[in-house]
Write a structure and sequence with these properties.
The protein has 201 residues and is mainly alpha-helical. The protein has helices spanning 2-20, 26-48, 53-76, 82-102, 106-125, 131-154, 158-175, 191-200. Helices cover 79% and strands 0% of the residues.
């Protein structure tokens, strides 16, 4: 009963994150919404097919955390080059697929933990100029770390689902804060030079 309620809560959090992501930068918004859809899968599996839920989680969670790391990069720093992002996603997907097929959980944990570490590093780098968002993102990363630990110890249970819901919604809120916008340095104003050259002619 608790696991079912936790699954419903994760689905509700994913739905809320979809709409909250509208306030984030466009590049981050796409990743956040994609991750929201991915994280619905283990919750739906826990409700409909509990026996298949561990395989679904081992396939989806690593990809979702890598996608969230890409969202954090796009929201707090600079979006990765599409080719590099595609390579990272491909590697995470192959590792997650191998984990689901072989049952070797370490293949799912490796990309998941890398995603969590990337979120932590990106948040710490913005601690000085976006402290509240960075703290919220850091706390969300800890939630995902707790979710990964719960998956190792208990499979797809209430702890995994609840920590995933908290992490997803917390990170989405952090990246949707108006103060997180990346400040770009203005280039030199060359209008005066252009006008002077025009008059010189």
């Amino acid at each position: 009963m608790i696991a079912a309620a936790s699954a419903v809560l994760l689905i509700a959090a994913a739905l809320a994150a979809w709409f909250v992501a509208a306030g984030s930068r466009p590049a981050a918004r796409v990743h956040l919404r994609f991750a929201s859809v991915l994280l619905v899968s283990p919750a739906a599996a826990a409700l409909a097919m509990p026996a298949a839920a561990p395989e679904v989680a081992s396939l989806v969670m690593p990809i979702a955390l890598i996608v969230l790391a890409l969202a954090t990069a796009a929201g707090l720093a600079k979006a990765l080059v599409p080719a590099l992002a595609a390579l990272i996603l491909m590697a995470a997907s192959l590792s997650a697929l191998a984990a689901a097929v072989t049952g070797w959980i370490v293949l799912a944990l490796a990309p998941a933990l890398l995603g969590v570490a990337a979120i932590v590093i990106l948040c710490l780098r913005r601690f000085d100029d976006a402290r509240l968002a960075a703290l919220q993102g850091f706390a969300s990363a800890l939630c995902f770390l707790a979710a990964a630990s719960a998956f190792v110890l208990d499979g797809v249970g209430a702890a995994l689902l609840l920590f995933s819901a908290a992490g997803l919604l917390g990170l989405t809120l952090a990246l949707s804060r108006s103060g997180v916008a990346v400040v770009q340095r203005a280039g030199p104003d060359l209008r005066g030079v252009a006008i002077a050259r025009r008059h010189a002619r």
